[in-house]
Amino acid sequence: MEYVENVNRLFAGGAPDVTKKARASARRFLNEQLLAHFAGEEQHIFPALLDADLGKKVVQRIADLRKDHKQFVKQINKLDKLIAGPVGPALRKALTGFSVRLQKHAAKENELFPSLI
Ligand SMILES: [Fe+2]
What we know:
Blueprint (H helix, E strand, L loop, with lengths): L1 H9 L5 H36 L4 H29 L4 H24 L5
Bound molecules: fe (ii) ion.
């Protein structure tokens, strides 16, 4: 639950400077690091796995992961607007929910990526 712990840590404080840093960090993570991570998987890793012809299970898992990515992109757009607003229970709940879904997504990828070896 590393993502959830980071979200809770970032938005736990109420001091304006901490909140400003937490907002910038969360936005950077969502809009830069995470989207770049998705793009790298979509453009390089998934095609390499499909080219390796590893079977129907791998094809289905990649389709599932791509579906997750599309949903995450929509959620990131919503979160970005929430992050710009007041820090409170709604933002923390949204970020925690996103983090839990992202953690589950990462677990699915961890099961898939050993097939590259
Ligand atoms: Fe992914």
